[in-house]
Structures are given as structure tokens and as C-alpha cells.
Amino acid sequence: MTVEPVPDWLIPPPEGFTVDAFLRLSNLPRHTELIDGSLIFVSPQVKWHRQVIDHLRRELDLQAPENLRADREMAVKLGVRQMPEPDVLVVTSEAFDRADPDSYYFAEDVVLAVEVVSKDSQERDRDTKPGKYAKAGIRHYWRVERNGAAPVVYAYELDPATNSYALLGIFHDILKIPVPFPVEIGLVIEQGRG
Length: 194
What we know:
single chain, two-stranded antiparallel sheet, Uma2, 6-stranded mixed sheet, 22% helix, tt1808, chain A, alpha+beta
């Protein structure tokens, strides 16, 4: 077996990559994230993951008030060395329609960040990213776990006294919650129907 040499761009500078340097990198694999100055590569998506993302994005966009829009898999600049990519996010309509930047949002644009947990992202989605989102002031965070074929949504709201997330509820079958806007989403995902 021959080992290919590591490309130069893959080796971070001693202080780690900044968002500006990250944005200049070309030919990165899809959905590469920057967390703590390090490049994070993700494994290929499974159908369930994509179907849940599609379903939540569609329902959130349909139910959002006019000043908000739902998007999927767009990077968010949280700080100098932080640029994660939530699976689903709700942003202001102004940010959604803004022409520049066209490849990411700013933390202040984001009302809700949603992560759909996969095997390779468990620690990031349960521990790392919620802390980063909270520190950046994103008010709402949902983590979606798989229970057989069904999604289970853990909904959190930012506690300004502790600057960390407080659990609002765990939702099976139906996600019904009043924040960040009144939402009611069925969580039974038909295979192939997203």
C-alpha cells in the first residue's frame, strides 16, 4: 500500500487556521468546518440524516414569520477560528437575501441552529458546537438524535445569566414549541418522503 503525501494546505499553521485563511482554501471536501482553528471533515451523509434535514428545513421555512427564513448546511462565522456548519438554521430574512457574503452567515444572523447527530459528529453536536453557539449568542439550539427510524429533538434556549443552553424539552412524534416562533412539526419521517 502506498501512502500519498499530505497536501500542504491540510497542515494548519502553528496558531491554527483563521476564518479568513479557511475561506481562501480551495478544493476542500464538502461540509468541511473550522472548529478551534482546525479543519473538521465529515463522513458521507446517510439517507436518514438528509431526510431529517430536508424535513426540518422545509417545515421551519413554511412556519417561520416573514422576517425569518430557514436554510440548510451553511457555515456560520462565530469567531476568528470558528466556522461550523449547522445542518439546519433559521436566520433573518435580511441575512438570507443578502448577496455578500454568499457562502456563510454571521452569528448575529442566526436565530436557531440545528444539528442532526450522526455517528462521526456525536461529540461535536452534543458538546463542542452547543458551547460555541451559546458563546456566540445564538439564542436557540436543537439537537436531533436518531431513535430507530424516528428523530428525537432536544430543544434548548440560551440562558443569558450563564451564557449556556437550558433544555426546554425532548420531543418525540411531534415537536411543538413556542420559541423561537410557534412551531409544530410532525417527527415521523416517511422513507423517501423527507
